[in-house]
Amino acid sequence: MHVAAGDGDGFCYVRKASQSSSNLNEGGGDREGDVQAAETAAATISAGDAFQEVCFTGSFNGSDAFDAGIFAIRIEANL
Questions:
Q1: What does the alpha-carbon distance between residue 34 and residue 65 come to, in Å, rounded to a whole number?
Q2: CA end-to-end distance (rounded Å), the chain
Q3: Of 71, 13, 59, 17, nearest to 37 (Cα)?
Q4: What pLDDT, on the 0 to 100 scale, is given for residue 77?
Q5: What confidence tens digit (pLDDT) does each residue in 27-55 have?
Q6: pTM (2 decimals)?
Q7: Other Cβ atoms closer than 10 A to 50
Q8: Exposure on the CB side of residue 52, measured as CA atoms within 13 A
Q9: Are the CB atoms for 53 and 69 separated by under 8 Å?
């Protein structure tokens, strides 16, 4: 993400849609300029649920996230 001057910091986190108050992992930095905000998480989700990536900065001076998205692999198994 690009953190604009005056925004101070930028972070992203991954969470389950059904547990919006519980973050699985967070990435980012306490600086302005280009900040890598990559997260890695392994989690089990049930049918009908989803992962969400949420990004934010310390203010509203024109920061932006680019190439953002979630890559997920689903493996079903009967053990």
A1: 10
A2: 40
A3: 13
A4: 67
A5: 899 999 999 888 888 788 888 888 888 88
A6: 0.74
A7: 11
A8: 12
A9: yes
